[in-house]
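*** Residues and shapes ***
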Amino acid sequence: MNNLIAELKVKIIDILNLQDVTPENFDENAQLVGGDLGIDSIDVLEMVVMIEKDYGIVINSQEAGEKIFSSLASLAEYITTVNTSRSSS
């Protein structure tokens, strides 16, 4: 999962144009939305599109999205869980 977290850090920094953030100082356990990064609802929409496009995972519930995007670690865990359940099906 560390590889996925590293990959997500780079993608999120890129798609959200977080100019003052590097993968090294991106805390995967910190609050993602509304935290120090300044990520807002528009940014979440961009991340949802990226997750759907890059990982084939649709997040269509606000309640689920709030949990999934609570931190980078929770996002990576969700992607891993969905992919694991797909592999075992």
